[in-house]
Write a structure and sequence with these properties.
Layout: H1 17-26, H2 33-58, H3 64-75, E1 79-80, H4 82-89, H5 93-105, E2 109-113, E3 121-125, H6 127-147, H7 153-168, H8 171-174
Antiparallel strand pairs: 1-3, 2-3
Helix pairs in contact: 1-2, 4-5
């Protein structure tokens, strides 16, 4: 068996360039196999990172979403409207409502009349929420630093640039195809 197509748990091996080429050829597509390989591995890394993130934040009694909401409140002087939180976090209002409900139950946030517009309810970071962020900061940020410790400062700069450009392309997975179908496959 060719080692290039051997299935392992190593993210660097799944899928291989050979596998990507074989799949593209199977459907007679005019697609760059290396581009497919990069995107596939990025998706696999994203799934692993999402899982690891949940394990990481569970140490602190949070989920990734709850942490992001608390951090966003802290970054915005401790008070934000739910609609703004949804926009900042890139999630629906219903998702934000669920996060707020849980965090409020745990005493980490509270709802109150907005200091900007008293007709609206704002979400406020409580002292207990601020304390939670302070207490977890040292371990949290040390683990983030350790996660990318194999990259040099220059490599991290390049990675940030590349990640920004790839992130701009994520809509290709969710948007309707803009290329007519007859232009997608080989004739």
């Amino acid at each position: 068996m060719n080692n290039d197509i051997k299935v392992t748990n190593d993210i660097n091996a799944i899928p291989s360039l050979v596998q990507s080429k074989r799949q593209i050829d199977r459907y007679n597509l005019d697609i760059d196999a290396q581009a497919v390989l990069v995107a596939s591995r990025l998706m696999a890394a994203g799934a692993k990172l999402g899982h690891a993130s949940e394990i990481h934040f569970a140490r602190f009694g949070l989920s990734t979403g709850r942490y992001r909401l608390l951090a966003d409140l802290e970054d915005n002087e401790g008070e934000v409207l739910p609609s703004q939180l949804a926009e900042h976090l890139g999630v629906t209002r219903a998702t934000v409502t669920g996060l707020i409900d849980t965090l409020e139950r745990d005493g980490l946030v509270s709802r109150r009349s907005s200091s900007v517009d008293g007709r609206q309810k704002a979400v406020k970071l409580t002292e207990q929420g601020a304390k939670k962020l302070r207490e977890m900061a040292s371990e949290h940020f040390a683990r983030l630093e350790a996660m990318v410790s194999l990259l040099s400062i220059a490599e991290r700069s390049v990675f940030l640039d590349l990640l920004g450009r790839v992130t701009q392309g994520i809509s290709a997975l969710t948007d309707e195809p803009s290329v007519p179908k007859e232009n997608i496959s080989k004739e």
